[in-house]
Design a protein that fits this description.
heterodimer; A: seven-stranded mixed sheet; four-stranded antiparallel sheet; globular; B: mainly beta; three-stranded antiparallel sheet; 9 strands; 0% helix
């Protein structure tokens, strides 16, 4: 059973960089086949996809956040991380890490799904 | 404002069948598959339906999904009190982004 666990500061000051780590257990990031993703949920709101990283280090980010986001991977620790720079109060959210699958199904339609999620961690941006 | 549009709320009584809609466009639902997630209060989302109508192992067959054109629907039959949760649709958009619906809060009366 794959498990993911987010960790990092729960409070970040405006203009600083938010840093979170996701530790994966029950499966190896290095085995490939999955895209390790970050998703956030603003308080009382819906979900927003942030981006993903593959074990090889290739990344893809939400175009609206791309200029501020960096996702990295440490396969030796079976972890991947999120950095979000120049944060404001609008970045206050619960941040989830998740295992993603991105593929074309048998009918040729593109499918993106997240089948394992961490429990989420609330990050508040405030001075 | 989410590009995938869901009704903010839905309700039903135990045993009833309820449906939740998700409306998109040709660049997302119209050309890619739809997934549905269930988020129980205070917990992380859980994959409920993928590829429009497929259920992951362990998801009861009371839950079903469908897609037609640029819209999709989640149906829950034999509604139970433990189905009270937020439900989100999601799809890849050809603008190279994953989109989620705004969520529908299901209340079991």
């Amino acid at each position: 059973q794959v498990q993911l666990q987010e960790s990092g500061p729960g409070l970040v000051k405006p203009s600083q960089t938010l840093s979170l780590t996701c530790t994966v257990s029950g499966g190896s990031i290095s085995s490939g086949g999955y895209y390790w993703s970050w998703i956030r949920q603003h308080p009382g709101k819906g979900l927003e996809w942030i981006g993903y990283i593959y074990y090889s280090g290739s990344t893809y980010y939400n175009p609206s956040l791309k200029s501020r986001v960096t996702i990295s991977v440490d396969t030796s620790k079976n972890q991947f991380s999120l950095k979000l720079s120049s944060v404001t109060a609008a970045d206050t959210a619960v941040y989830y890490c998740a295992r993603g699958s991105y593929y074309y199904d048998s009918s040729g339609y593109y499918t993106v799904l997240f089948d394992y999620w961490g429990q989420g961690t609330l990050v508040t941006v405030s001075s | 404002q989410s590009v995938l549009t869901q009704p903010p709320s839905a309700s039903g009584t135990p045993g009833q069948r309820v449906t939740i809609s998700c409306s998109g466009s040709s660049s997302n639902i119209g050309s890619n598959t739809v997934n549905w997630y269930q988020q129980l209060p205070g917990t992380a989302p859980k994959l409920l339906i993928y590829s429009n109508n497929q259920r992951p192992s362990g998801v009861p067959d009371r839950f079903s999904g469908s897609k037609s054109g640029t819209s999709a629907s989640l149906a829950i039959s034999g509604l139970q009190s433990e189905d009270e949760a937020d439900y989100y649709c999601a799809a890849w958009d050809d603008s190279l982004n994953v989109l989620f619906g705004g969520g529908t809060k299901l209340t079991v009366l």
